[in-house]
Structures are given as structure tokens and as C-alpha cells.
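Database export, one record per block. Field names are fixed; values are copied verbatim from the stored entry.
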Amino acid sequence: MNPSVPSRTYVRAAIAGVALLLFAACTPNRTEPPRSTENHVLTAPTGASVAVEQEDGQWTMPAKNYASTRFSGLEEINTGNVANLKLAWSFSTGVLRGHEAAPVIANNTMYVITPYPNIVYALDLTQPGAPVKWKHEPNPVSSSQGVACCDFVNRGLVYSDGRIFFNTLDNHTIALDANTGQEIWNTKVGDINMGESITMAPLVVKGKVLVGNSGGEFGVPTPMF
């Protein structure tokens, strides 16, 4: 598997509570090849410089990149036009628990995962109102809600090489086809009966999916798989 990110798209998104807000000024549907963009440099709180990976217009992991900068180098939105932003559409997941997962965007599709029961939605950003392309329900074991210490949150999914990777509260790591939502594989990496649960987003590096379980407050070790 080659986890390289796909070609550029020009879509931006923001998430607040159970509503996902996409601004009209951020959604031109363009098909031209990626333009060359210089790497931007951020200044860390300590004063150190942090190099940002070359901007490709995608947002394929919750914190944007491996440096977790949460920073987009795109420049269509700036101080001169930010006042013109307005709501284009909204989407409710229907799950009334804490939402801590930033949506990811690849190839004009926004992917969203909910807290338990960890439903994954794919939204078509090329269509008015961003209709649902597909929905995947992994149906995690309900008793996992009693194992998680601090709400039933999920901190995000990852797009890589045409696949979506995510974790469920009951310790399953799952890969889906990004175009269809069909499950490709499902691996159990922990046991709720041992006090283990998973709320983290996976990390895909060089064809490997890295996952760590939660439960340290119960004396559970947290290995990486």
C-alpha cells in the first residue's frame, strides 16, 4: 500500500459540535493539476521554526500532516475576503455525544466519523448541499461505553491510498474503500473485558497502520500495533 496523498482539491471545512459547516467561498470545483507552492514556516510557541509540508490542497488526517500543524497553506481565504464567508450547508451526524474528530477531505469528498457508535459518513462536496455518498455502521459492542473513561469520543479517521482507516470504541481497526464504503478488513486489537478501548485516530506510515489502545487509568498497558 502506498499511503501517498491524492491530487489537489480546493475544499475547506470546519466542524462545530454535531454540525459540520462548509463555507461557500471555499468550494470551487477545479480540476487543474496541483500548482507549485512553497513550504510555509510556522513559528512555534518556543520561537523555533517548524517547516510545513508542501501544500497539496488535501486534508487527509485529523491534524493535517505528520507534524500535526493543523495549518493549511492555501491562500484563497485571507484578511481581505474572510468577512465575506457565509454558511453554504450544514450536516448533523445525529449522535449526541462529544465530537472530537476533525473531518478529512480527499478528492472532493469529506469523510466524517462520529463518537460511539463510530458511524462513518462520506459527503460529496461536488454536489449542492454535500449529500451523503455512503454511510458505514461498524456496530461496536454497546458495553464498550462502560469501559471508556471520558465520554465515548473518537478523534478521527485517516485517508490513504484510496482507503479510509478508523478505530472503534471496542478496539477494532477497520479499513474501508474510500469510494464505496465497503469494508476491506477488520482487525480486533484489544479487549474491552481487560479495560481496553480505543478513541485515537490511527496513523498510516509507509503502508503500516499504527494504533494504540486506551485504558492506562485502569492499569492497562498501551502497546502500539
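Remark 1: The longest strand covers residues 87-92.
Remark 2: The chain has one domain: 14-33+54-218.
End of record.
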